[in-house]
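re: the backbone from monday

yeah here it is again, tokenized this time
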């Protein structure tokens, strides 16, 4: 499964680690190249600690790292099956991103927001196909916290809801 994460801050990076650990091909997007570099370095540190604690071995560490690519153009997300946005909590910024994303990805791509405070229905309203928009809210730190809220908007289709719940379950989250 091709997963894209928008925003390489703490939450975006953590979600990318979760998806990559589960075997997904992950593209972590940020406009800021320094933020991407910081994210890559933080993942190295995090995974090295897991190796030291014998939670994973060096081969697993490499596999997880190799599952993540770091990109800084939205066009590179066009082959995504699921995009999770984890950027600033600003409705207009999120609406703009979702509107742009919708033009780049397949009609079957699920568009998700990690927001915990903004209305998923308001974000979905910016899309031509709002039925594919859903909230998938991870708690910090995403790799450690088991709970994930899956929040359908009034527009979200039952199929997108069920697919999203299955993905989260496949990632060993509840």
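seq for it, each position gets an aa:
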């Amino acid at each position: 499964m091709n997963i894209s994460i928008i925003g390489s801050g703490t939450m975006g990076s953590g979600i990318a680690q979760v998806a990559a650990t589960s075997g997904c091909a992950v593209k972590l997007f940020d406009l800021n190249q320094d933020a991407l570099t910081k994210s890559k370095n933080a993942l190295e540190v995090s995974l090295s600690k897991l190796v030291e604690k014998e939670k994973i071995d060096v081969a697993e560490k490499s596999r997880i790292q190799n599952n993540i690519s770091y990109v800084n153009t939205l066009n590179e997300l066009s082959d995504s099956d699921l995009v999770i946005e984890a950027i600033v909590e600003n409705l207009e910024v999120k609406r703009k991103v979702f509107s742009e994303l919708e033009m780049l990805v397949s009609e079957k791509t699920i568009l998700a927001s990690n927001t915990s405070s903004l209305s998923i229905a308001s974000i979905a309203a910016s899309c031509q196909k709002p039925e594919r928009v859903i909230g998938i809210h991870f708690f910090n730190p995403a790799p450690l916290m088991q709970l994930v809220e899956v929040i359908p908007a009034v527009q979200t289709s039952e199929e997108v809801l069920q697919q999203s719940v299955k993905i989260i379950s496949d990632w060993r989250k509840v």
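The chain has a mean pLDDT of 97. DSSP finds six helices and seven strands in the chain.
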